[in-house]
Amino acid sequence: MRVTVKMGGDLLKGEDINTALIEDLKALTKEHGIVLVHGGGDLVTEMAKRLGKEQVFVMSPEGFKSRYTDRETAEIYAMVMAGHINTKIVGTLQSFGINVMGLSGFDGGLIRAERKQRLVVVDKQGQKRAIEGGYTGRITSVNSDLLEVLLKQGITPVISPLAMGLQYEPLNVDGDRTTAAVAKAIKADAIIYLTDVEGVLLDGKVVPKMGALEVEGLLEKIGPGMSTKIHAAVDAIKGGVGKAIITSGFTENPLRNALEGRCGTVVSL
Amino acid sequence: MKLKCPECDGDIETKEVIEGEILNCNDCGAELEVTKSKKGTFELKVAESEGEDWGE
Fold this sequence. Notes:
The complex is a heterodimer.
Chain A: E1 2-7, H1 19-31, E2 33-38, H2 41-50, E3 57-59, E4 65-67, H3 71-95, E5 100-103, E6 111-115, E7 118-122, E8 128-132, E9 137-142, H4 144-152, E10 156-159, E11 162-164, E12 170-172, H5 175-185, E13 190-195, E14 201-202, E15 205-206, E16 209-211, H6 216-219, H7 224-238, E17 243-248, H8 254-259, E18 265-268
Parallel strand pairs in A: 1-2, 1-13, 2-10, 5-10, 13-17, 16-18
Antiparallel strand pairs in A: 3-4, 6-9, 7-8, 11-12, 14-15, 17-18
Helix pairs in contact in A: 2-3, 5-7
Chain B: E1 2-4, E2 11-13, E3 22-24, E4 31-36, E5 42-46
Antiparallel strand pairs in B: 1-2, 3-4, 4-5
């Protein structure tokens, strides 16, 4: 079985990563081909602040708050994502005896993306305005051959959501979307989105199942962070991935329980 | 100020505009971005609306 796992930024904020999750991952890598993708946007913001580069956030007309990635921010983003966060995860997993390799979208041309030309944002007066797209991108390709080579060697790739643009520039790409693109490229059987909540919550309760074609009506009742995951999950499923599970990464055996349907929200056709 | 919708050619009456502002055409509903031509006059083009995933 091929499984793509997204490790959300909330799992990476403390000194250590949840040991139960690492042990679970270690066991699964012996049975399945696993590809990890990580997040960490909050850590980028924190580091940028320490470097004296206050981050600017913009609001989309749909109500999504996003970082505005100018050139300098893109460089900090690359430094933190592919440097600090990726090496921390790789080092931790290696210390548990998991054979992992850290990669960004630049390595082997793993993730290519096109820069977004214009973004429509809502300004402080509540007016819609078009601004330069900055250094964010839409993923156009994933080098699945590279991932296949690693997986066949029993190596678990750990990917940071940093894409290489058409001009070989660093581009900030969404981690959930990156996970979906990687899953489609390796024809994954499942995606597991590990986050800090038990699944998609509606009226305080976990929704156990969601049909990929029925999510539209639910999206406005769900928070923005979760909506992006659901959009990405639906995209992956429409692209041939078997199912996507959204679950907490802070529990015992979160991956195995997710794959065996014992926790989280399962999005499928 | 009177501008032309590039989609339906309809007239759009507006007060002052600034570059980058987004207007809606009342006739066809198109979302339009205010741009400045080389001559310094304001024009409209269809806004390229991007999805919500603007990265991490």
